[in-house]
């Protein structure tokens, strides 16, 4: 069962500019992988997976760093497995239908459709993309997301808090970022996962402290 607040409209809903969203599945102590690089504890159950699929339908472009792209390109051919569960097959369709931009200084070729390479995350390029995009944009992976947050590009942060403490690893958010947020929506799932959706536009622009 999903228990939720009434959703608040996004502050950019009345504009023609696409939202740039950072979404991550994290441990309760804020890590996307543990110290060994594992994230098997974050695998969503059917209820959470169905929610993720519905959320991702509005995404037209995914922005990735090299590591996140290497993880996510699994979905390009995932449905070749006849035993793939229906929700995962649905997600593969959603993922392949979107454009992908991989930010890497060393990558020279890609193995997925609708994919292009960019050497750096350029703030002005990202802003132009937001202005021209017909659907929302998702930034994947904490390293690239940290750059987008520092540049004031991220409109929304969505975190799926998993009921596990891993004690260290790769943090979902940079340590030295100060950013005021407005809670737009929250969902609690039957397995204890909590989804929190925040707007970054309600307070001052994010800045790194120190």
Structural class: alpha/beta
- How many DSSP E strands? 13
Cα-to-Cα separation, first versus last residue: 42 Å
Q: How many helices?
A: 5
Q: Average pLDDT value?
A: 90
CATH architecture descriptor: 3-Layer(aba) Sandwich
Query: Per CATH, what is the topology?
Result: Dihydrofolate Reductase, subunit A
Rg computed from alpha carbons, rounded to a whole number of angstroms: 17 Å
Q: What is the CATH class name?
A: Alpha Beta
Form type: globular
Helix content: 10-25%
Beta-strand portion reads: 25-35%
In CATH, what is the homologous superfamily?
Dihydrofolate Reductase, subunit A
Tell me what you see in this structure.
The chain has helices spanning 46-56, 66-72, 86-97, 123-132, 142-150; strands at 3-4, 20-27, 31-33, 59-65, 99-103, 115-118, 136-140, 156-162, 170-171, 177-178, 182-188, 194-199, 207-208. With 210 residues, the protein is an alpha/beta fold. It has a single domain, classed as Dihydrofolate Reductase, subunit A, CATH 3.40.430.10. It has a nine-stranded mixed beta sheet, with helices on both faces. A two-stranded antiparallel ribbon has the order 3-9. Strand 11 (182-188) and strand 12 form a beta hairpin. The radius of gyration is 17 Å and the shape is globular. It starts with a strand and ends with a strand.
Spell out the key features of this protein.
210 residues; alpha/beta; Dihydrofolate Reductase, subunit A; 5 helices; 23% helix; globular; disordered C terminus
Summarize this structure briefly:
This protein is of the alpha/beta class. The protein contains 5 helices and 13 strands.
């Amino acid at each position: 069962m999903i228990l939720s607040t009434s959703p608040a409209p996004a502050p950019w809903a009345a504009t023609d500019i696409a939202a740039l969203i950072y979404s991550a599945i994290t441990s309760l102590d804020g890590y996307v992988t543990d110290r060994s690089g594992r994230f098997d504890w974050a695998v969503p159950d059917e209820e959470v997976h169905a929610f993720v699929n519905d959320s991702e339908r509005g995404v037209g472009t995914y922005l990735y760093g090299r590591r996140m792209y290497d993880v996510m390109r699994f979905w390009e051919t995932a449905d070749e497995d006849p035993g793939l569960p229906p929700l995962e097959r649905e997600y593969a369709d959603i993922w392949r239908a979107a454009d992908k931009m991989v930010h890497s200084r060393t990558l020279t070729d890609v193995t997925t459709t609708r994919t292009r390479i960019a050497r750096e995350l350029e703030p002005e390029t990202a802003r132009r993309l937001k202005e021209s995009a017909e659907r929302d944009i998702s930034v994947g992976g904490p390293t690239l997301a940290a750059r987008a947050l520092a540049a004031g590009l991220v409109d929304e942060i969505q975190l799926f808090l998993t009921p596990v403490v891993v004690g260290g690893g790769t943090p979902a958010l940079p340590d030295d970022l100060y950013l005021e947020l407005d809670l737009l929506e929250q969902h609690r799932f039957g397995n204890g996962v909590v989804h929190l959706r925040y707007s970054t536009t309600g307070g001052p622009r994010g800045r790194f402290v120190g």
